[in-house]
Amino acid sequence: MQGEIAVLLVYEQTEPLAALRLLLESQSFKTSRSRNCQETSQELQQPDPPLVVFTDTTLPDGTWREVVALAAQATAPVSVIVVGRLVDVPFYIEVIESGAVDFVAPPFAPFDLNHVTRCAAQNALERRQGTTGTKEETAF
């Protein structure tokens, strides 16, 4: 995958996602933001939605669960990563079992965040193309 990876961040409260956004931008990801489920729905119904969505656990009009459901109805496959405030293994398991591709919590290590974001983008891209992909086909 070449070029910028589009990432949507869904949050109302600034922390921890504002810091996450700055880190993603410093790594050349193309970021945009929505503040609630309604705005997120509009973004995901665009002809070319972002490959990756990072969402806060709670929003003014819903939760991460609604964001996962909205992503499932997007115009093209999207990978959702839930952002918690603390590491919480039972919650991580719940998130993955509910359809998100990953769960992250601060502090965000730049290398790890880059890897997680690129893997999530690759997952969405492969689903869009209807392939499982190989290293040659999917190299970043």
Number of helices, counting only DSSP H or I runs of 4 residues or more: 6
**Could you say which structural class the secondary elements and strand pairing correspond to?**
alpha/beta
CATH architecture: 3-Layer(aba) Sandwich
* Separation of the first and last Cα atoms: 5 Å
Shape verdict: globular
Q: What is the number of independent domains?
A: 1
Helix content: 40-55%
**Strand content range:** 15-25%
The CATH topology turns out to be: Rossmann fold
Q: Going across the biggest sheet, name each strand in turn.
A: 2-1-3-6-7
Sketch the major β-sheet: 5 strands, parallel
pLDDT < 50 stretches: 134-140
> At the first level of CATH, what is the class?
Alpha Beta
Rounded to the nearest angstrom, the radius of gyration is: 14 Å
